[in-house]
Amino acid sequence: MKTVLAFGDSLTWGYDPETMLRHDFFDRWPNVVGRALGHKVRVISEGLNGRTTAFDDHLVPAERNGVKILPTLLASHQPLDLVVILLGTNDLKRDTGGGRVFESRQGLERLVEICQTFPYQRGYEPPKLLLVAPPPFCSTTEPDFSLLFGHAVEESTHFRSAITKVAEEYGIAMFDAGEVCETSPIDGVHLDAENTRRLGEALIEPIRTLLELDD
What we know:
Pfam families: Lipase_GDSL_2. The protein is 37% helix and 13% strand. The protein is α/β, with parallel strands linked by helices. It has a single domain, classed as SGNH hydrolase (Rossmann fold, 3-Layer(aba) Sandwich). A 5-stranded parallel β-sheet has the order 2-1-3-4-5, with helices on both faces. Helix 2 crosses helix 7, helix 3 packs parallel to helix 4 and helix 4 packs parallel to helix 6. The relative contact order is 0.19.
């Protein structure tokens, strides 16, 4: 059996912009992938609302800095065959990541380096990596989310090019979520159930290929 770690933020956790709770289990994209690949693959869903690539958030009760928590997850879930990273949205908050895709790219590079150089237990190889670019934001009239992300609607359109550069630099795979799903105008940054399922469905084949699975 192959093991996949899905490492992300609320888009991986399954935040529902309509209810502000969590999408049903099989609507969340990691579980869509896991269900499709069946007994051949175990997909570990490791998403957390507000998680950044590499930046601290001192206003929350749990660690949100991806760089700080990733080594623990690599150690506890090894051996891993693939790590899928979908992060960057929260780096565009001015109070955590600086509000630019540039900082997100730097944080993502650090996450890639951690995955590739972590001292895995002897006999285990570093996992393959798949970087997923977050979908661009859209305008919203929701007051809080407009304050948090309204300045970054245009900036978020640069996720694809920035993450493509990281993938090319490190020789790893990349997928653009914006090609298959759209953020909800309810809050401008999250995915409704249909779109998070659509993302999972689109990732099935790239993940199957990276794991070298038979159809």
